[in-house]
Amino acid sequence: MTARRLRASLKGWGGVGAMALALVVTAVFALLLPLSSARGDGSTGTGGQGVGQGIQARADTCTDPQDQSPSPSSDDSGKTITAIKQRGYLSVGVDQNSYRWGYRDPNNTAKSSDLEGFDIDLAHEIARKILGDPNAVRFHAIPTNQRIPAIKSGQVDMVVRTMTITCSRLKDVAFSAPYFLTGQQVLAPKTSGIKGYDETLAGKRICSAAGSTAYDKLSADKKTGALTSSADITTTVPNQLDCLVRLQLGQVDAVVTDGALAASQAAQDPTVELKGKTFTEDYYGVAMKLGADDLVRRVNQVLVDYRKSGGWQASYTKWLSATLKADSPSATPPTAHYK
């Protein structure tokens, strides 16, 4: 779809500002645009190799997945970290279309090529702590459904991309301790009769990202009857922001995604709003390769220091506080527990 056709399709959605339109257009073409190196060396950001040895996932019964990360360590002598230092940069999978999380501000002409947002701040902090330079990082645009493959294939060292820690994902990747608490929530037009994750979704078309915890929850609840049987959950997209496009085009009636992401999308488009309360408890973590325990432990220490220094809170205030309520459980970093 061309940008001209997209603009035409969105006519009648009065109130959608320039920011929303620019980010929607970006979402449509995001997978066509490679990311440049933050170090300015001309790399496209698509060919870097991650490091770390993969191992067989344990078949232990999983409970409280957010508490399964190893204890923090400041040791930089491990095999994975040594390889990263020798290479000279950190390779990080991120989003470039999530407003205030990982995005390019189309109104910021002075820094039009720079990614910014809450997750981007964290990636820079990890690079600063491990390599001594916050800009020693190369960002890679990773679709929602390609986050785990990007880690397993070695395309990236880690993914910092609003990725929820789950038991099923722990079979494929390792996670840091949680750095953010949120929950699934419904996003729909303000004029919609949808009131939340309830019977008002009967007969409605719901969009979610393929490979997301939102889709897993929708699918599971359809099977158990917790979600009305007439709700249509067949619309899935590679990138979560694509659901906002579908919603604006009238192709779906509602979006289910993390409440923190939904709040940012509502800030982009004043014609949509959050419906009802969050109905799950989800923790974001930094995802890394199985077996890269030295890197996982080091990232956990970065998170400890990031919280203590006030860096986490400063980033939250800058990027997210305006879209989340003052009493939001997301307003403070989650307490970390280790295995």
Structure description:
By secondary structure, the chain is an alpha/beta fold. It contains ten helices and 14 strands. The protein has helices spanning 3-9, 18-29, 79-87, 118-131, 147-152, 213-224, 241-248, 259-268, 293-309, 311-319, and strands at 90-94, 97-98, 102-103, 137-141, 158-159, 173-175, 180-182, 184-189, 205-209, 232-237, 254-258, 272-275, 282-284, 287-289. The strands form four sheets. A five-stranded mixed beta sheet has the order 4-1-5-14-6. β2 and β3 form a beta hairpin. Mean pLDDT is 85; it is low at 1-59.
Outline:
The chain is an alpha/beta fold. The chain contains ten helices and 14 strands.
State the main characteristics.
single chain; 339 residues; alpha/beta; five-stranded mixed β-sheet; 10 helices; 31% helix; globular; disordered N terminus
Fraction in helix: 25-40%
Portion in beta strands: 15-25%
Element-level helix/strand string: HHHEEEHEHEEEEEHEHEHEEEHH
Cα(first) to Cα(last) distance is: 48 Å
Contiguous low-pLDDT stretches (5 residues minimum) are: 1-59
Q: Please tell me how large the radius of gyration is.
A: 19 Å
Task: Draw up the topology in text.
Layout: H1 3-9, H2 18-29, H3 79-87, E1 90-94, E2 97-98, E3 102-103, H4 118-131, E4 137-141, H5 147-152, E5 158-159, E6 173-175, E7 180-182, E8 184-189, E9 205-209, H6 213-224, E10 232-237, H7 241-248, E11 254-258, H8 259-268, E12 272-275, E13 282-284, E14 287-289, H9 293-309, H10 311-319
Parallel strand pairs: 1-4, 1-5, 9-10, 9-11
Antiparallel strand pairs: 2-3, 5-14, 6-14, 7-13, 8-11, 8-12
Helix pairs in contact: 4-9
